[in-house]
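#dry-run=false #mode=assembly
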Amino acid sequence: MKARSFQYLTFEGLKNVWVNRLMSVASVGVLTACMLLMGIAIAFSFNVDVIMGTVEDQNVVMVYLEDGLSDGDRQEVEDALRAIDNVKNLEYVSKEVALDSITQGFRDDQKLLFEEFKGEENPLPDALKVTYKDLSLFDETTGQIEQMKQNMKISEVSNKRDVANQVNSLRNVINIASIWLIALLMVIALVIISNTIRITMFSRKLEISIMKAVGATDGFIRFPFMIEGIILGIIAAGVAFGLVYLIYRLAADAVTGNLMLNLNLLPFGSFAAIIFGIFLVLGAIAGMLGSLVSIRKYLKREGSEFSEI
Amino acid sequence: MLKVPGAMLPLIEFKGVNKTYDNGTKALADVNLKVSRGEFVFIVGASGAGKSTFMRLLTREEAPNSGEIIVNGFKLSKIRHKDIPLLRRTMGIVFQDFRLIPTMNVFENVSFAMRVVGASNREIRRRVSNALTLVGLGGKARSRPSELSGGEQQRVGLARALVNNPTMIIADEPTGNVDPNMSYEIVELLSEINRRGTTIIMVTHEHQLVRDFNRRVVMIENGMVVADNFDGGI
Ligand SMILES: Nc1ncnc2c1ncn2[C@@H]1O[C@H](COP(=O)(O)OP(=O)(O)O)[C@@H](O)[C@H]1O
Ligand SMILES: [Mg+2]
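#status=ok
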């Protein structure tokens, strides 16, 4: 295609978006909703991956001891744990050490909040950190330790694997739900876009009939409508990106501000480019597909293609 | 009537052409016809006779069910979809309803036909103003179609059909929506265009017009060519 035609047709496509703005807004709206969900799912999944990374590789079980345990009682528990074959290592984590390590994760001004928990007020239990030799025996060994709760002064056995499993299944639920929802929205977006373009084509029937009569090629006739679709897709990508950014900011503030969660979200910039790239490609493809669907029928129509409009 | 050398291929040739629409209407039956370069042909006949079908076969909006149509070297029964635009660039099509774009002025309406086949701005400026001068609308380039009379609007349609320098003009009832006295102007213009070498195929049912312009007349009735004064007269 000649450069001047390209310029002319691109401008025509832009004009279509504006002339047909009500439907354009509808198209962009649905496509944006679709991308928004996708963006949130992606951002969630990035963060879960990081959290899981710190969780999954630890074949560690924390054995929390009852409050005010004597050294003898503790020794008894330690010996019993060491007697288990699969136990590789034992580490005593006093409540003071535990509080320190939690405090570490916070900014200096936030650390002050933990001052009052120091000493007698410390609500954390003493614990034994148990490392396994063979991860494949994880459940068995953990079961054995759970048994010990019956006759020893153990308040709780917790392993991060439980947490990992919960986060994992939450991620699966979110993934499956979002895939279906995104697919559904995508179909709706395509239908709306193709209808938008169909309406534009209808309102440009006169021009199209003249173009056909004077011998414009299919590609030429198609081009402004494809541009229209692509522009709709790109606008949707921009709006969705902005919204994902805002929502993420709010979520990050909420999560970071919540001391109990002890969790920091990834900075948005670390995956912003990926999300924007996906949005752009998705938007352009959706816009192009949507327009092709409606143009194809129109151009292939044989018979009285321009003498009767 | 121009005498065409026998060796020269006809510009248009219909050989045993039949056309039946999908709904079963038989519109043309065994049409045989040759039109040479430079001719001016009136196609006449009653409403529903098949005149428009004949024109739509020429422009390859419709394909024949059987028979062969050759236009400007294109075999229309075998033409590929992507070659149809090339065929149409050899013809200037004039519509009964003018087909002017109301939001564009006269100049833009004519240049539209050039723009969509990729002409340059310089070419467009030169050729559009030539075409408008030829049809006598040089002074109305900035007018909107709604500010023009029917006859003037059709002259814009003619300028648009001419502007890409077609070999032939295809006009299905171009005077159908024009005042009778204005019809003469349109046919006068077509005659002038014809004098410059462009072949004209024009459908009309205005008998007086046909009588006053002494040209070849092809009469279609019930889908058949029943008279053709190409070598004799009706
Ligand atoms: N697209 C079409 N589908 C079905 N029948 C048609 C179509 N176009 C025309 N016809 C029929 O074919 C016959 C010839 O029509 P047409 O060529 O338009 O005649 P004319 O132009 O001489 O009035 C008529 O009976 C008409 O009803
Ligand atoms: Mg007709």
